[in-house]
Here is the input.
Amino acid sequence: MSAEPHFPFIFTPQLRKRLSRRAVDMLLKAFGEFPELKGQIITVGYTSAHLGSALVPLREEAVARLTIRVKIHKLTYNTIGHELTHLLQGLSKIHFKAGKASEAMPFGEKQCDIWTLARSPLFLDDAPTYIRLPRAMREDWPRYAKSVRRLCIAALKKRRTHRLYMQWLEAKIKDLAKRPVEPKPGEQMGLPF
Ligand SMILES: [Zn+2]
Here is the structure.
């Protein structure tokens, strides 16, 4: 008997044709950030229309057929994390309804982005799609990524007492974009001569 952890993915033929070693490694690394999904088998398919998509499980029967789809070209951890978080949105609701969890993760795209960024710095490699970001921030995402993640974590704490936590988050993000930014590593401070 092998003590190896099981391989958590089934790849559709359409995806397998396009799959690289690097993409498989990325999927595995992202999956490792989701202890809630441990022991699940996830079907990973291919999409050309979006960065990714997920079939959010709504009933117990769907738990056995967890499915996400990704675009392999320019695959990011952020996309994988976002799609896996969609699976959790459904699973947590199913567990909640069955009385196995005290609260459920809310549905929604923006919610999915917030929970994804809060989960791990791994998912900061690309800007989130649905959280409203000022253009300057979207264009210079690496410079703001860590601060936005901190705000997402704060927003999830805020949510316990504050119904409008997403508005709160986006207002804080807007403030952040107005603040003078720190220089990039290795960049000079731009002192006048
Ligand atoms: Zn989504």
About this structure: Residues 77-97 form the longest helix (21 residues). The mean pLDDT is 91. The domain at 1-104 is CATH 3.30.2010 (Zincin-like).
